[in-house]
Amino acid sequence: MNEKTMQAMEAHIPELAGNAVKQAYYQALTTSGKVLEAVNGKLVETTAEGGQRLIRNLPAPVAVTPGSKRVRTRK
User: What is the pTM (predicted TM-score) of this model?
Assistant: First the structure.
């Protein structure tokens, strides 16, 4: 496999990942009838029928500089 072929294949990784996430989402809805997801800063339970129930508000995202290391401490 040459470099050009490898780059062409790598270019499809985001599309493949997006399709895998979408497939897992629908499979979870089919299997259990509900999925937890983050929507606009809120944790929401979505049902197979399309209903949504607010579980809780999520904390603001933490900005992280690429390449930096973060250590989680116990509270």
Answer: 0.68
Q: How far apart are CA 57 and CA 41, in angstroms?
A: 6
Residue-wise pLDDT tens for the chain (75 aa)?
Answer: 899 899 989 999 999 999 999 999 999 999 999 999 999 999 999 999 999 999 999 999 888 898 998 888 887
Specify the 3-state DSSP secondary structure of 14.
helix
Angstrom distances, CA of residue 47 to CA of 8, 16, 26, 74? 38, 25, 11, 33
Instruction: Say which residue the tokens 């497939």 belong to.
Output: 23
The closest of 19, 22, 38, 42 to 30, measured between CA atoms, is: 22
